[in-house]
Specification:
alpha+beta, 5-stranded antiparallel β-sheet, 3-stranded antiparallel β-sheet, 29% strand, flat, transmembrane helix
């Protein structure tokens, strides 16, 4: 009982921490934004912002990078912060030279060597008892037996996109005023979602985007509904919908473990004591009934004995009716046989 209680308390603390961590990390900002004020925003200017978002691809090989190859992390940081796709498009000398080259990915364990262990269990049944043993093998005592300290990786630098929209809107409520703000939405490598509306966009790309992207929907001088933070007018968004996958993660990994732990605690502290109380009450009621039945039988026998003894005593002190009549007849006969006044 104590072990179960300690285990449930540990699970309760862990599930509470996990639930509140997920809720305040993923969901609470969306809950706060859902209370923002609705207004209409007029787009003053909008622009597409392109940037390099380099990444390394190392594959499954254990090949080492050439001697003197640059570190992948340093190369990625240098290109992402120091080069621009638009500048590269205007001047070839402003393009980074790293993409496509081999960089040093650092230490990497290429393979593990493990021992083979067995776990056996016995099962007995029947009379006389007959036992059988079953064993299963599993990997154990694993260690890295093949590694490299300069993993050869290939550097790639795709272009990522974000849309910057400068808007103006009118605040609501007392003291209404005009407020300017800038909204930025990142689309990673999804050019179709960003939808660059310009003459340099290839027709094939515009056809693949399937119509209207974010940039097309927020061109200069267009007006649309938007939401702003009443506490900070510089914060504005065009959509404050909840993100389903964030709530799903919180429900599965936060709410369900917490609910299961609370149900187990409720069973331990409410259901189990109630069951024991009902059983004790039933046992006490049965004992009381048995004791009451025994006392009733004893009192009845005593009453019957008392009545018998009373009748016996009455028989000893009170003469029966026929004895009284006999004595009276004898007295009358004696009086008739003796003359009056003669002794």
């Amino acid at each position: 009982m104590r072990f179960a209680l300690k285990l449930l308390l540990v699970l309760l603390v862990a599930s509470l921490g996990l639930f509140f961590g997920l809720f305040f990390g993923l969901n609470y900002p969306e809950v706060v934004r859902s209370g923002w004020s609705l207004t209409r925003c007029t787009v003053l200017a909008s622009a597409i912002d392109s940037r390099y978002c380099c990444e390394k691809t190392c594959g499954n090989s254990c090949a080492s990078a050439p001697l003197g190859a640059p570190q992948c992390a340093a190369q990625i940081s240098s290109i992402n912060s120091g080069f621009s796709p638009s500048a590269c498009a205007a001047n070839a000398t402003a393009c980074p030279t790293g993409p496509g080259s081999i960089c040093d990915g650092g230490y990497h364990c290429c393979g593990n060597c493990c021992s083979t262990c067995q776990s056996c269990s016995s099962t007995c049944s029947g009379t006389p008892s007959t036992c059988s043993q079953s064993c299963k093998s599993y990997s154990c005592n694993c260690r890295c037996c093949s590694s490299t300290i300069n993993w050869g990786c290939q550097l790639s630098c795709p272009v990522c996109y974000a849309v910057n929209v400068d808007v103006t809107y009118q605040t609501r409520g007392p003291g209404s005023r005009a407020q300017n703000a800038t909204y930025r939405q990142d689309f990673k490598k999804d050019l179709g979602a960003a939808q660059v509306r310009c003459t340099t966009t290839p027709l094939s790309v515009r056809a693949l985007t399937g119509g209207q992207g974010f940039f097309d929907g927020h061109i200069t001088n267009s007006t649309s509904f938007c939401y702003y933070d009443p506490k900070d007018g510089s914060q504005v968004r065009f959509d404050v919908k909840m993100t389903p996958w964030k709530w799903a993660i919180t429900a599965v990994f936060g709410a369900l473990p917490l609910a299961a732990t609370l149900c187990a605690l409720a069973y331990l502290f409410l259901v189990v004591p109630a069951v024991f109380a009902v059983r004790r009450r039933r046992a006490g009621y049965g004992s009381a009934r048995g004791a009451g039945a025994g006392d009733g039988n004893g009192n009845g026998d005593g009453a019957q004995d008392g009545e018998g003894k009373a009748q016996e005593g009455a028989g000893e002190t009170v003469p029966p009716p026929y004895s009284a009549r006999r004595d009276s007849a004898r007295g009358d006969a004696d009086e008739a046989g003796s003359p009056s006044g003669v002794p």
